[in-house]
Amino acid sequence: MKITDSIKYVGVYDGDIDLFEGQYKVPGVSYNSYIVFDDKIAVMDTVDARKTNEWLANVEAALNGKAPDYLVIAHLEPDHSGSIQAMADKYPEMKLVMTAKALSMLPQFVDAALAARAVAVKENDTLALGAHTLQFITAPMVHWPEVMLSYERSEKVLFSADAFGTFGNPETDPWLPEARRYYFNIVGKYGAPVTALLKKAAALDIAAICPLHGPVLTGDLSEYVGKYQVWSSYAPEEAGVLVAYGSLHGNTAKAAKLAADMIREQGAKVTVVDLAPGTIWPLPWQKPSNMTSCCWPAPPTTAISSPRWKTSCCT
Ligand SMILES: [Fe+2]
Fold first, then answer.
1. Ligand 1 centre from 297 Cα, in Å?
2. Ion ligand 1 — residues with CB < 5 Å
3. Strand residues in the chain grouped as ranges (E)
4. Which of 16, 37, 106, 259 has the fewest CB atoms within 10 Å, i.e. the most exposed one?
């Protein structure tokens, strides 16, 4: 799939994954990867090992007999590093471009010998491909320490790593509901690093955002950036009051509802939620139509076998 005349999408969609990162129920997820074609050819990230063969076939078809010069590695989490070894084995002349931090972590994910083919880059380093130039932007703890983004200067394309990613099928699912859920489950506790990254991004003229999950974002990017500004600052998306309660015998429930009525009488928008298991929560992001279960406010970050998961999810 063409992003621009020189940039192609070669990612894959994983529609039958059971739990993303072993814990999040998702309506599928894409592992995105791109190729920048110029005098030199750069492949932007690999994919989860679940999809290595399909992805390599996409890459080979897009390359049409050529060999890539660089593999740019934004993030080493296995949903993106799972095919580095296979790619490096297939193209033995290809260099691996990553941050020094990523290089120090690399042997945990691939054969240690691959480090000899690595090119370590730092903040604002550039890689000239011909008419295209990649500028590297570090983004530590968005959401691992080695993360970097790449900005292609000539076409103003930002390869944003996991930032601006979302669950779901990039061709059919809307960005916002699952992007919100993705953000708060994957990077939500790293608000300060995300805010720092947004400041760096504000200095760039961006025409398209190419994340590692979900659709390529084009057109008016203010909606997406605006949501990230709200989420990373822990500001509410809507002004209002949330009254959440658990009630063993119903008395706390009565008190909570009474409190909600009193607040409502003051003119505030009030949402009341019963935290008891089995409640179907009336919030838009909890149950995509193609899912059979839901969690509030999102799946817990503990293992699926944990008590917290069992008490947080309803079916
Ligand atoms: Fe990811």
1. 21
2. 79, 162, 212
3. 7-9, 12-14, 29-31, 34-36, 42-44, 70-72, 95-99, 118-121, 126-128, 133-138, 148-152, 157-159, 208-210, 217-218, 241-245, 270-274, 294-295, 313-314
4. 16
Q: Kindly give the distance from the C-alpha atom of residue 22 to the centroid of ligand 1, in angstroms, as a whole number.
A: 13
Residue 69 token pair: 């010069």
Predicted confidence (pLDDT) per residue in 78-111, tens digit: 999 999 999 999 999 999 999 999 999 999 999 9
Contact predicate 296/311, CB 8 Å:
no
- Which residues make up the CATH 3.60.15.10 domain(s) of the chain? 7-232
75 Cα: distance to centroid of ligand 1 (angstroms):
8
Quote the ligand 1 centre to 34 CA distance (angstroms): 14
Q: Decide if domain 7-232 falls under CATH 3.30.230.10.
A: no
Nearest to 44 by CA among 5, 76, 70: 70
- The rounded Å distance from CA 79 to ligand 1 centre is 6
Both tokens assigned to 232: 């990373």
